[in-house]
Amino acid sequence: MTSVVLMRRLVGTMAGALVWVSTCDWATACPFCTSQGQTLTAEVEQASMVLFGTLSNARLNPDDMDFGAGTTDLTIEAVIKPHEVVLGRKVITLPRYVPVENKEGKFKYLVFCDVFKGKIDPYRGLAVKADSDIVKYLQGALAVKDKSVAERLKHFFQYLDNPDIEISNDAYKEFGNSDYKDFAEMAPGLPADKIAKWLEDPSTPPFRYGLYASMLGHCGQERHAALLRKMLDDPQKRGGSGVDGMLAGYIMLKPKEGWNYLLGILSNPAHEFMLRYAALRAARFFWDFRTNVVPKADILNALHVLLDQGDIADLAIEDLRKWQCWEECDRVLGLFGRPSHDVPIVRRAIMRYALSCPKPQAAKFVAMMRQKDAEWVKDVEELLKLEAQPAKPEVSGVSK
User: Fold this and answer.
1) In this model, does residue 238 exceed pLDDT 90?
2) Which has more confidence, 136 or 64?
3) Separation between Cα atoms, residue 235 and residue 220, nearest integer Å
4) CA distance 214 to 181
5) Which residue, of 52, 102, 261, 273, has the fewest CB within 10 Å?
6) Which helix (H) or strand (E) is 10 found in, with range?
7) Residue ranges of the domains in the chain?
8) Rounded to whole angstroms, what are the CA distances from 302 to 32, 271, 286, 352?
9) CATH number of 40-136
10) CB neighbour burial string for 296-334, b if at least 16 within 10 angstroms, e if fewer
11) Digit-coded pLDDT (tens) for 294-339
């Protein structure tokens, strides 16, 4: 058993919630992007005022020993988000000591401020190169903020390959924070050859492969499938992130050939766990969003091959429970007690399925387990109740 699997077992035993995290609903985020945080556009919306310009004349306040006590001048070159406190002013004095070395004027600063009773409180500064497109990028984002999310994503797509890494990564975050339905609406109209070049470019960060490959699956032609197959066959690329997006893109472009390739991964226990897990995530994508490409019956058959693999069976069982596939009840319950599946995380997944399943054999199984270990069954029930509680919505990135 690999160290990765051992770690999964340990975490599952201690926390009891790993399976919920790994099978959470994708409806609120791009399924092929890494986890994202707050975007610059969202920060601009939250700030009272955002200015762009040059910092100079930093002065310490000798009577105040607090860190940053002093003042710094900001020469305003662009107003990203206006406020009446700076109307008509070209230079303002910020109540912060910000010593900067800016030889030859190579850097400019994006300054986020609160304004309270006419006083400016700068709480964040972002240094960018003087020739950065940050002003154009943010002003363009604000110009489309009231349009549909799909329309706004078109703006951010233009900046995914921007030479300013701050801009490029922020544009990627916008996709990562958007709903798939919005991404799917605009993706068919994207320039496939341009995206293909990004995937072929060795300087493209690997964490972007999933998003770009899924884009290609939506807008590409059958000839682009060869590129995705080449990436999937590359041991280095298939060993990193984004494999689920590559598989999804490949299947969308060549459904039969691509699905058989995915099945080949899932059905071989000798493949690394993370590779099989990526294939499972791709299968989930088609179940949740694209059954017009892969029928649900085929996806269920894919999960069947995972049920017999002890190191990943718990994830397949969780999917069957989430999808309410109760016709699989006998198959799932029959796994309980198998030597290859006799680990806490798999036993718990089976119990979660049984507690949720309306079949009489599931109720009989739960009753039997209550007699053997009532406290354990109660703990599993409590975790299910916690999972069922609706999460508080978080707004980040492209607003809904």
Assistant:
1) no
2) 136
3) 24
4) 13
5) 102
6) helix 3-15
7) 1-26+308-389, 40-136
8) 20, 15, 12, 21
9) 2.40.50.120
10) eebbbebbebbbbbbbbbbbbbbbbbbbebeebbeebbe
11) 999 999 999 999 999 999 999 999 999 999 999 999 999 999 999 9
Residue type, 304: H
- Read off the pLDDT of each residue in 356-364 and give the average, rounded to a whole number: 97
User: Taking the CB of residue 151, how many other CB atoms lie within 10 A of it?
Assistant: 13
Contact 335, 313 (CB under 8 A): yes
Q: What is the residue-averaged pLDDT of the chain?
A: 88
Cα torsion through 58, 64, 66, 69, rounded to 10? -20
| Claim: this prediction has a pTM higher than 0.70 | yes
How far is the C-alpha of 306 from the C-alpha of 312, rounded, in Å? Answer: 6
Q: What are phi and psi of 12, to 5 degrees?
A: -65, -40
* 27 SS3 class: coil
Question: So what's the pLDDT on residue 387?
Answer: 86
- What distance in Å separates the CA atoms of residue 226 and residue 200, rounded to the nearest whole number? 12
The token pair at 294 is 């892969």
Distance (Å, whole) CA 187 – CA 190: 5
Kindly list the distances between the CA atom of residue 298 and the CA atoms of 12, 123, 256, 286, in Å, as whole numbers in the listed order: 29, 53, 11, 10
Mean pLDDT of 8-17: 38
Q: Which strands sit side by side in the sheet containing 107-116, from one edge to the other?
A: 91-94, 70-81, 49-60, 107-116, 119-129
- CA 305, CA 302: separation in Å to the nearest integer? 6
